[in-house]
Amino acid sequence: MATEQLTGAEIVIRALKDQGVDTVFGYPGGAVLPIYDALFLQNEVKHILVRQEGGAVHAAEGYARSTGKVGVVLVTSGPGATNAVTGLTDALMDSIPLICLTGQVPTHLIGNDAFQEADTTGITRPCTKHNYLVRDVEDLPRIMHEAFYVAQNGRPGPVVIDLPKDVLQLKSENYLAPEQVKHRSYRPQVDGEEEQIEKAVEALAKSKRPIFYVGGGVINSGDRATELLTEFIHLTGAPCTTTLMGLGAFPGSDKQFLGMLGMHGTYEANLAMYNCDVMMNIGARFDDRVTGRLDEFSPDSIKVHVDIDASSINKNVMVDIPVIGDAERVLEAMLSLWKERKYNLDKKSAKAWWGRINEWQAKDCLSYVQDGPVIKPQHAIKRLYELTKDRKPYITTEVGQHQMWAAQYFKFEEPKKWMTSGGLGTMGYGLPAAVGAQQAHPGELVIDVSGEASFMMNMQELSTIAQYNLPVKVFIVNNQWMGMVRQWQQLLHGSRYSESYSDALPDFVKLAESFGLVGMRCEKAEDLDRMIQEMIDCPRPVLFDCLVSQEENCFPMIPSGAAHYEMLLGPDDSAARPISDEGMVLV
Amino acid sequence: MAPMEYLIESRTIAVLVDNEPGVLARVIGLFSGRGYNIESLTVTEVDAAHGLSRITVVTSGTAQILEQIKAQLGRLVPVHRVSDLTKEGTCVERELALIKVAGAGDKRVEALRIADIFRARVVDSSHSHFVFELTGKSDKLDVFVDLMQPLGLIDVSRTGVVAISRGAKAL
């Protein structure tokens, strides 16, 4: 087949097919017309037309996170590429494997300030795992396959391939299959050092107050990693908490699960972290939202840190036993060593440790009182969970209070069901992410748990939902405030609510109907269950406007600059403990 | 003395990279984006057959920051190897400077005399100026530049540090 001549655009499509890509999220424009032409002439790769390029990247993220595959984005040069930047940064922060194909002006015009020219590789260098500018069509097959390898291996991330229009039109007869391409230098370490693994397992075996602190790295590593993790935790009998990104890595309703930790994590998870003597961090990165005040972070524990990214080790928190490697391989080795040596945690200490944990759990930190006709936002989300859990829905969120409540009240029994913008905190992520998740899982229930402010950041994607008749359910927890901003203004800025009120909101029911979707509005607690059920039973896309009490705050909360044991459990606590000066400067 | 974790150390780090467009920008962007210091940075192709360039960075920071710098460099996709030359045994460090001194009379004679002491070579001259070429460790170059200051120093160009480990082992 060596004599077969393919244009650059045909090489792109061929490489996508060879990489097993079935869906591309994109938006056409001048510089990528050759690729759109090649797409038109085939049927294997489906293109989902979004309404803004930012939506394409989040949709690809939703697709990637819900499938474990690489998400693919196709956008034009200039504004197409710059609109993709937020999504790329989001994917970099949350370690989502993406390929973003960007058009570029022809090579002879690069640097001339041509129409729709932007220095895409320059702009995206700090917000991608890697990027390429293809200057020669002969390099294109290699770069395409290399990009897929880089996006998926090691710590996953987004890779941009910038494609000048002339390169897309030139022909080459040297297409390469994926197996013919081997990256020159990039070989991430996947097997942990045996000596370190042994030390880690020994430390765990000797521990009296262990805890597993699990992050999104386990989910990225694959389903096998979550199975191994669950088996290991069950075998040890130790408690487990996960980060926001790690929800679903360990079954949410398991009795060893303490819930999410961190700023809005559970009381029991945070206190167990503070008081533990051995911390098994598997695929988490000691994010500031998790650690709180660093010098008070779990002061007496031996810290094991398993991470595929060596730069995560000792970045925020100094650890005692680092293990660099892929979670699946390392967990496999740890588990077999634990079994081989017939290790067991000391029964008496374990019992005492669980006794303390049970006391913290008895605080029932996620409790709330739903009385009267006005719906509490916590109640709305809890009911949404209870009424949908049998369907094992895919949940996406936007960013803010509703996101934290969803993380608190939803229980994820398996990985890849939960898609949220953790690292970057991108409002507007959830709606397009739901598009991607629904596209990947046509028969499944996909819900975007949203807030009215976040929703409006990317609501143009309702049109995408309508075009492809994706039965996404958008559940807007509508308190008419940028709730988390308002909460911080209340706690940190003397209740001076500067620009955080959601004024001039549209009628969401009419908005939905104008796109040909189903609109619903729920205003009373007594209607909630019935209407949620109606939404789930509806085979069409639904925009559900759930009006909730306006000034509810998200608790529990570790105020910025505070330590794990300084959690605020409710509004009375926050009045008693003002935020420190150091805390005021933190975000 | 400051506690160990706050002690600022200087390190010379060698980085072997694919000689591809943008690789230097990646390294520099990493330093500026994460707020690390660059005291000196040099780069040039060292192996044309394999398309490899070598970057020498002199940087400073606490032990934790220095470890971060190495780990962050190591995870850049085109990076083959990162070596902390200061920490992993001893190394030879050299820098080259071209120094232009203009003047006449006694100062001119004195400049030439000091250049001789430092084993600097004259690579360009006229009746009113010299250009000296001087190679050595950076502090030697600093001293020479200081001495030339009152003698009519008008221009300095320095390469930045290049370094290689001592002994029979390669990077």
From TrEMBL, chain A:
Residues 399-546 form the Thiamine pyrophosphate enzyme TPP-binding domain. It catalyses: 2 pyruvate + H(+) = (2S)-2-acetolactate + CO2. Its EC number is 2.2.1.6. Residues 7-121 form the Thiamine pyrophosphate enzyme N-terminal TPP-binding domain. Keywords: Amino-acid biosynthesis, Branched-chain amino acid biosynthesis, Magnesium, Metal-binding, Thiamine pyrophosphate, Transferase. PANTHER family: ACETOLACTATE SYNTHASE CATALYTIC SUBUNIT, MITOCHONDRIAL (PTHR18968:SF13), THIAMINE PYROPHOSPHATE ENZYMES (PTHR18968). This is Acetolactate synthase. It comes from Kiloniella laminariae. The lineage of its organism: Bacteria, Pseudomonadati, Pseudomonadota, Alphaproteobacteria, Rhodospirillales.
